[in-house]
Amino acid sequence: MPSVQLDGEPVPADGALPRESLGSFGARPFGFYVHVPYCASRCGYCDFNTYTATELGGGASQAGYAQHAIAEIRQARKVLGESYVPVETVFFGGGTPTLLPAKDLVAMLKAIKGEFGLSADVEVTTEANPESVDEKYLVELAEGGFNRISFGMQSTRPHVLELLERRHTPGRPEQCVRWAYDAGFEQVNLDLIYGTPGETEDDWRASLEAVISAYPDHVSAYSLIVEDGTRLASRIRRGELPMIDEDVHADRYLMTDQLLGEAGYRWYEVSNWAVSEDAHCRHNMLYWTGADWWGVGPGAHSHIGGTRWWNVKHPTAYAQRIEAGHSPGLAREVLTAEDRRIERILLELRIAEGLELGVLSEKGRSAAELALQEKLLEPLPFADGHAVLTLRGRLLADAIVRDLTD
Amino acid sequence: MPALPTDIPLPSKTDPALIRNFCIIAHIDHGKSTLADRMLQLTGVVDERQMRAQYLDRMDIERERGITIKSQAVRLPWRVDGTTHVLNMIDTPGHVDFTYEVSRSLAACEGAILLVDAAQGIEAQTLANLYMALENDLTVIPVLNKIDLPAAQPEKYSEELAKLIGCEPDEVLKVSGKTGAGVPELLDHVVRTLPKPIGDPAGKSRAMIFDSVYDSYRGVVTYVRVVDGYLSKRERILMMSTGATHELLEIGVISPEPKPADGLGPGEVGYLITGVKDVRQSKVGDTITAQNKGATEALAGYKDPKPMVFSGIYPIDGSDYPLLRDALDKLQLNDAALVYEPETSAALGFGFRVGFLGLLHLEIIRERLEREFNLDLIATAPNVVYRVIMENGEEHTVTNPSEFPSDGKIAEVYEPTVRATVLAPSEYIGAIMELCQGRRGSLLGMDYLSEDRVELRYTLPLGEIIFDFFDQLKSKTRGYASLDYDVDGEQVADLVKVDILLHHEKVDAFSAIVHKDRAYNYGVKMAERLKDLIPRQQFEVPIQAAIGARVIARESVRAMRKDVLAKCYGGDISRKRKLLEKQKEGKKRMKMVGRVEVPQEAFIAALSSDSDGPSDAKKK
C-alpha cells in the first residue's frame, strides 16, 4: 500500500472505548486477530510489522510473547464488558506464527476461549511458512483446536522464490497441504504472489498448476507490491531488477482467474478464490463486512462498532505497556457516518456478494450506471440492487471506488 | 566626493543656454548603468555612502536582469569654464519591445551618447536606436566603454563607429564606467558639443511626457520635458490627447531623488504629480499644457501603445483568479501597454487573454505576477494578432487561436510582419539566411559594417519570431548575432488552425495558428507529447491533431488495465480510506476534457516544453 500517514486521537490508558462503539458490541460477528511479530529472516519484499531475532534486542523475547498476548486478551474482556459474545473466528498472522511452539499458539487460543467462549462452528486459522512446520507440529495445532491453515507458498519456481527471499524448497507447500488435511485441518489455503520481476507467464502457470494439483480448498493470489523501504524496492531503484509492469499484472490476474476457475475455484474477493462457500475465510469476511474484531499484539489493528485503533508497533514498546497494565493502543479513530459509508463502498465492492446500491449517493449511483455500461459491473446483480465487479472491473476496483464514492 | 558647486541654477530659473539634455544609447550589457553611476558620483549628487550599483534602476527585477525597463531623468550639475551647467541625463529602455518609449526619450533630448562595449562592437538594437537618434536630429557623441578590459579593441571599434556616424576614429571618446577613466572628459564634451535646447520661453506652455510611473504612495509620477513656456506648481494642466485636466500637486526635478520645485522652464526636464492613479491617464508621448490659455497644438509624435503578442494567462489554482485580476489591475496602473480581458478555457479554467508589446514584456509581466503577487501561473504559447477576412466580407480580429474561424469560408488571413535587422560576423551569413528563409523571411538587403561584420535586413512574419527564433539565431551564430525588429505592416499568408482533440473533444489551450507547411509537424509533435503526459484512463483515449475536420496526426493513450491494490485486510482499511481521500483530492484538481481526467501538470508540461516559449526575450 502506498504510504499514507495514519494519525488519530490517543487511546486512553485503560483502552476504554467510546460509549457508542461499545454499545453496539455483539450486534455483529466478533473475531480475534493475533499478530505474531517474528520471522526467521525478513523477506526482500516484506514491509510487515515483523522482526527477526537479530533485529530485536532483549526485553521482547519470543518465549515471553504468548504471556503478553494473553494479558491483552484479558484486557479485551475488561474493555468489552461481561456480555456474552462468543468468538466466531480467530486468526493468527504475522510475521510467522509457527515460529512459536505449537503449545504457545494453543495457549493463546485457550485464553480467548476462556475469556469469551468460542461459537460452536468457530473458525481458527494460523498462517504458516512451509519450512517452519512438520507433521507433528500440525497435529499438535489441530488437536489444540485449529481447523484452518494458510501456507505462504508464493511460487513454485526456484528463481522466483530466491528473488522473494523465501527459504522453502519447491514442493514443500504441496506436501504441507497433505500433512494438514491428514492432521485434521478442515480448510487449507495456499498464498501466491504473481508479477515478481523475472517471472514469466510459464512460471506463473506452473505455480497455478502446482496449487491446483495440491488441491487446497482456498487460494489467495496477490500481485507483488513494491513497498518503499524494502530491499526489493532498492534493487529496482538501483536498476538491478526491472520495474513492475501493471499490464503484466493484469495478464497474470486473468490467467489466475481462468485456471482456478477451470479447476473449480470461484472468486469471492478480488484476491481470493475458494472451492465452495464453506471454504471462504470467514475471518477475512469480518474485515470486509464491517464486523468487529480485536487485534492482539504489536501493530495489530482492531475495530469495534465504528472505532478503529492500532497498537504500538514495536514488540519492546508493546511488552512495556502490557507489563504496566496499560492498553497497548497507540491511536484510534472514531468513524463518522460518512467514513463508514465510504468504507462500505471500498470494502464491499471488492467481494463477490457486492455492494448494496442504496449505499451510494446520487452521484455515486450515476457513476455506477456508467460503470455498468462500461461492463465493469455485472448486469444481473445490478438489476437486483447490487454492484458486483466483472472480471475487468476487479482489475480496476480502486478506480471504480473513486468514482462510486463521489 | 566632489563638492557640489555653489552656483547651481534652480529649476524654472535656469537659462536654457546652460541646459544639456542627453540620453545614452547602449546595448543591454554594454555598461550604461555603470557609466550613469560614475556620472552621479562625479557630479556630486550621490555620495559614496549612498552609492549602490545601478543606482537608477528602481525595480529589483531590473537590477537582477541588468536591464532598464523604465527610463529616468536625472539633473546633474557640471562646471565647465567657470560656469555650472545643468545636464539632464535621460535613461532609455534598452529593449526592442519598448521602441516607442525609446523614441519618446530621444525626442526629449538634443544629444545622445552612443555607448559601445570596446570588446564587442555595436549590436543590432543599438544600431536601430542610433538610427532613431539620427532621425530625431540628435547630436551623437560616440563613446567606447570598458577600455580597461584586456579584450578591448578600441582601434577596431573606433573605426566601426566612425564609419557609422561619419566622424573620424580619433573623435571617438574612450571611457571606463568601471574605473571612471575618461568620464569627466565625457561630461565636459557633453557641455561643449551638445546644442542647447530651443524653445519659446514666452510661448504657451507645452511639455512632452516621456515616461509615466505608478508609485504606490504618490500615484502616477509623470516625467516631462518642457519645450515652450513654463509649468508652475498648483497650476491646472491639460492632457491634450484625452482632454483631461488635473491639478499639479507637485512639480520638480530628480537629482537623483525627487526634489520639489516652483516649476519647470523651457528646455528643462523633471517630474510632476497630479494625483491620478493610473498611467493610462498620463500617457507617454502626450503633450501637457496649461488649462487656462494653454496651447492648442500638441507636440508631434504621440502614439497609442499597441499590443502585438498575446497569451492566455491562468492561475494554476483556480481559486486564485480574483487575485490574478487584482494583480493585473495593479500592474496596469504602471504599464499603459498592458491590456487584458477575461477568457475561459475548458482546459485551464478562468484566466485572461493578455496583450503585450513583445516577448520581453510578456516575460516581465509574468515574472512580476509570480514574484510580486505570489501567483502560480500557466501561460499558453504566445501568438500574434491575425486579421481574417471571410468570403462574405466579414472581418475578424483573432487574438486567441481557439477563436479562429473554422467553418472554412475564409477568404484571406493577414499576419503581422516585422522588419528585422541582424548584425553578425560575416562567417555566419549562410546560417542566418537559412534560418530566416525557414521562417518565411525575405531578404531586403545586406551591408558590410566592417570587413568581417555584416548587417542583414529581412521582412519576417512576427508569428515566426515569437517562439524560438532568437535562441536559434544565437545558437547558429555561437552567440555573436544580435537582432532588432520593428513591426512593419501585414501580409497575406497561408495559415491554418490546428486543433488538438482528446477523446474527440477539442482542447482549446492547444489550438495554434500555423503556416500550412508546418501544420503537420505541429500536430505530430503535440500528439506525441500529450501521449506521454496524459495518464491512462479506464478507456482508450485517442489524441488527434486536426485542421477543421481533417485529422493530420493521431496517437492514443492505452486503457488502464489494472488499478487495484491486491490486499485489503484489517490493518489496511484505515490507510486505504485515507489513501482514497488523498486520491480524491487529487481527482478534484484534475481538469476534465470530456470524460478524460487530465492533471493540470500535464497541460503545464505540454505548454512549457514548448521550451522555445518566450525565452528568447531573456537573452541579450
With helices defined by DSSP (H or I, 4 residues minimum), what is the helix count of chain A?
16
- Most extensive chain contact? A-B, 49 and 27 residues
- Spatial gap, N to C terminus of chain A: 22 Å
Give the CATH level 1 class of the largest domain in chain A.
Alpha Beta
Strand content of chain B: 25-35%
Task: Report strand order across the widest sheet of chain A.
Answer: 8-9-7-6-5-4-3-2-10
Oligomer: heterodimer
The major β-sheet of chain A equals: 9 strands, mixed
Give the CATH architecture of the largest domain in chain A. Alpha-Beta Horseshoe
Q: Provide the residue-averaged pLDDT of chain A.
A: 94
Catalogue the unreliable spans of chain A: none
Shape of chain B: globular
Strand order of the largest sheet of chain B: 11-10-16-7-8-15-12-13
Q: Report the principal-axis shape of chain A.
A: globular
Task: Please report the distance between the alpha carbons of the first and last residues of chain B.
Answer: 34 Å
Overall number of strands of chain A: 15
CATH superfamily of the largest domain in chain A: tm_1862 like domain
Q: What is the arithmetic mean of pLDDT of chain B?
A: 87
Look at the helices and sheets of chain B and give the structural class. Answer: alpha+beta
Radius of gyration of chain A: 21 Å
Number of helices of chain B: 15
Write structural notes for this entry.
Chain A is an alpha/beta fold and 406 residues long. Chain A is globular and about 55 Å long. Chain A contains 16 helices and 15 strands. In chain A, 40% of the residues lie in helices and 20% in strands. Chain A has 2 domains: 9-288, tm_1862 like domain (pyruvate-formate lyase- activating enzyme); 336-406, no CATH class. In chain A, strands 8-9-7-6-5-4-3-2-10 form a 9-stranded mixed β-sheet, with helices on both faces. In chain A, strands 1-13-12-11 form a 4-stranded antiparallel β-sheet, with no helix packed on it. Chain A has helices at 19-23, 62-80, 102-116, 135-143, 158-164, 172-183, 201-214, 231-237, 246-262, 282-288, 315-323, 337-348, 362-373, 379-383, 391-395, 397-404; strands at 9-10, 30-36, 87-94, 118-128, 148-154, 187-194, 218-223, 266-269, 272-274, 292-296, 301-304, 307-311, 329-334, 355-356, 386-387. The relative contact order of chain A is 0.13. With 620 residues, chain B is α+β, with helices and mostly antiparallel strands. Chain B contains 15 helices and 34 strands. Chain B has an 8-stranded antiparallel β-sheet with strand order 11-10-16-7-8-15-12-13. In chain B, α12 (516-533) runs antiparallel to α14 (600-608). The two termini of chain B are 34 Å apart. The relative contact order of chain B is 0.09. The chains are: A alpha/beta (406), B alpha+beta (620). The interface between A and B is large, with 49 and 27 residues. Chain A: Keywords: 4Fe-4S, Chaperone, Cytoplasm, Heme, Iron, Iron-sulfur, Metal-binding, S-adenosyl-L-methionine. Chain A: Residues 24-266 form the Radical SAM core domain. Chain A: Probably acts as a heme chaperone, transferring heme to an unknown acceptor. Binds one molecule of heme per monomer, possibly covalently. Binds 1 [4Fe-4S] cluster. The cluster is coordinated with 3 cysteines and an exchangeable S-adenosyl-L-methionine.
